[in-house]
Design brief:
With 182 residues, this protein is an all-alpha fold. 67% of the residues lie in helices and 2% in strands. It is rod-shaped and about 90 Å long. The N terminus is likely disordered.
Length: 182
Amino acid sequence: MGACALILLILPATAQSQSNADLGAQLTHHLSTMKKDRQVLHFLQSHKWLFSDPRFADSAKRQLRLHTSSLARTQKKAAAAKLALARRAKGRHLAAVEASTPRSVICRVFGDHCQEAVAVSRCESGLRTDAQNGQYLGLFQMGSNERRIFGHGPSAIEQATAAHRYFVASGSDWSPWSCKPW
């Protein structure tokens, strides 16, 4: 039993992460380090006698401090890596959505009303996000008051989402638009 304790106590607490490693590899490394830290801390919690045995007390205390601080530090690093991965994934998703055609974006947003919405947008703007007619802008040529209430933006997803909000608020009919789908 004492030999097992000694072996666990002398295991290295953490390994240096590679500076060129991608975020996924860094996160995997952090999670592995956290697992090892928790294992050592659990072992020390289960073998409290090590702290009172003069042969192991100094080493046990040192390992407790080392793994407790390592766990806290690595949890912060893992959280930062998760956040960075989530931001990167969100950025890729937004880029993919923005790279989609206005028609496909409109269909994703309007669902069952896809064909109607595409027909209205084609008539209103020629399916162009940069279309402008006086105060009326975008795919659905929404006026300044409607943009203030329902939103707007430069991308097809932002414009279609705002138009969908307006569509739903108006009773899911096309009465607010000059162009009708029929």
